[in-house]
TrEMBL record:
This is Fumarate hydratase class I, anaerobic. It comes from the Bacteria. One of its GO terms (molecular function) is fumarate hydratase activity. It comes from Acetatifactor muris. Its EC number is 4.2.1.2. Residues 8-175 form the Fe-S hydro-lyase tartrate dehydratase beta-type catalytic domain. The gene is fumB. It is an enzyme of class 4 (lyase). The lineage of its organism: Bacteria, Bacillati, Bacillota, Clostridia, Lachnospirales. PANTHER family: L(+)-TARTRATE DEHYDRATASE SUBUNIT BETA, L(+)-TARTRATE DEHYDRATASE SUBUNIT BETA-RELATED. Belongs to the class-I fumarase family. Keywords: Lyase.
Length: 185
């Protein structure tokens, strides 16, 4: 099913999504990869504030290439999400509502997604140039010394993603394999 969703995500919006849904996100999302996640978790260990409000928000695991003339951002493809798995449960427990990446997640992340009514979206790997067209604004808000891994605040319009793991724990990586095996063997 195709749905248009405004971000940040409400609890009700996240609960309405199902693994396999095609979603177009419009609103504000943030970027952060491994180095930024590590710094955020270190800040939390020191009882410091995070450079962004995670509650209700969506983090896109992405490090953009430099913008070309007339563009807001360069190629903006997803990073493998499992690289953030050790940092993700604590952010989900703080209210992070969604993540965008590619690839499977570990069991701790799956449990935290369900426990917190969150959602994990996949963006199509290899389509970074096309995905960047849905980004209408981008600004570095923290850790600018990390270069492409700095935290960015981005405005998106009809940013295409697929629900891979929904708030009920359905995981498209598991169910799609099962459906394929049943229908093809």
């Amino acid at each position: 099913m195709n749905k248009h969703i405004t971000v940040p995500l409400t609890e009700a919006a996240a609960a309405s999504l199902h693994a396999g849904d095609y979603i177009y996100l419009t609103g504000t999302i943030y970027t952060a990869r491994d180095a930024a996640h590590k710094r955020m978790c270190e800040a939390l260990e020191r009882n410091e504030m995070l450079p962004l409000e995670v509650k209700g928000n969506v983090i896109y695991y992405m490090g953009p290439s430099p913008a070309r003339d007339g563009r807001v951002i360069g190629s903006a493809g997803p990073t493998t999400a499992s690289r953030m798995d050790k940092y993700t449960p604590v952010l989900l427990d703080m209210g992070l509502r969604g993540m965008i990446g590619k690839g499977r997640r570990n069991q701790e992340v799956k449990d935290a997604v369900v426990r917190n009514g969150a959602v994990y979206f996949a963006a199509v790997g290899g389509a970074g140039a096309l995905l960047s067209r849905a980004i209408t604004a981008s600004e570095i808000i923290a850790y600018d010394d990390l270069g492409t891994e700095a935290i960015r605040k981005m405005e998106v319009k009809d940013f295409p993603v697929i629900v891979v793991m929904d708030a009920q724990g359905n995981d498209l990586y598991e169910t799609a394999v099962q459906q394929y095996a049943v229908s093809h063997f």
